[in-house]
């Protein structure tokens, strides 16, 4: 049987390089790369969201746009966004009118809730 020369050699080299590169990736690197890819896709979808009254939640969530209701709180927004991260977030950043505030998620998760305003952006890390 005759092999296809150059093509077969390039294909074999490609598979060898892929195996070499994949063996050099640690589990934490792979997890970080997967999370970054997920967040990039989420941000792209966010840009396609129709404008409307509500708040935006970024991070490991299923629904990045939360419609506005009177009295909306941070806890309600995160619950509505449906957080799907493997671990609880460690930081919560609230961006409002060009300013931002960083919260320790442990403090928030222990019962302190914060009222939101239309247009707030919540980032879960």
Walk me through this protein's architecture.
With 125 residues, this protein is an alpha+beta fold. The chain folds into two domains: 1-48, no CATH class; 51-125, Outer membrane lipoprotein wza domain like (Outer membrane lipoprotein wza fold like), CATH 3.10.560. It is 42% helix and 19% strand. A five-stranded mixed beta sheet has the order 2-1-5-3-4. Strand 3 and strand 4 form a beta hairpin. The longest helix has 21 residues, at 27-47.
Roughly what is the average pLDDT, rounded to an integer?
A: 79
The SSE string, one letter per element, is: HHEEHEEHE
Q: What's the tally of helices? A: 4
As for the number of domains, it is 2
Low-confidence stretches: 7-21
> What percent strand?
15-25%
